[in-house]
Design a protein that fits this description.
128 residues, alpha/beta, 5-stranded mixed beta sheet, 5 helices, Nonspecific Lipid-transfer Protein, Chain A, globular, 37% helix
């Protein structure tokens, strides 16, 4: 088990995403800001190209298309599958800044069977 958001966790999750299907046009630089964690606030990012994860790490990405801000407990719930990202967004628990067009393209992908399977496999190797 890798600690959530550790370098080991990012490495393992990148390996798990290798089999994800192409999703032409699903390209984004996503910055995440997680607030109120046990060790303070945490930033990390994902870079997607046509639905494939090209890069992910703790820290910040240059010129993000969207910045997603979540409280720690909500972020953990999303990653465990206990809180649907679409619901978190609609309830205002997930704040989004930047391109709403990019965000609206990303959210439906979170409901696909492939994404749900990936989320379960990542949660299984994660120590929250």
């Amino acid at each position: 088990m890798a600690k959530w958001l550790s370098a080991e966790w990012f490495s393992q999750t990148r390996a798990l995403t290798a089999g994800q299907p192409d999703r032409p046009g699903l390209t984004a630089r996503i910055q995440y800001e997680i607030t109120g964690g046990p060790d303070g606030d945490v930033a990390y990012y994902l870079v997607l190209e046509d639905g494939k994860l090209l890069d992910s790490a703790a820290g910040t990405v240059e010129s993000p298309d969207v910045t997603v801000t979540l409280a720690w407990d909500d972020a953990v719930a999303v990653h465990k599958g206990e809180l649907d990202p679409n619901v978190a967004f609609m309830q205002g628990r997930m704040k989004v800044a930047g391109s709403m067009g990019v965000m609206m393209a990303l959210l439906p992908a979170t409901n696909t069977p492939e994404y749900q399977d990936l989320r379960r496999r990542i949660a299984a190797i994660t120590e929250f």
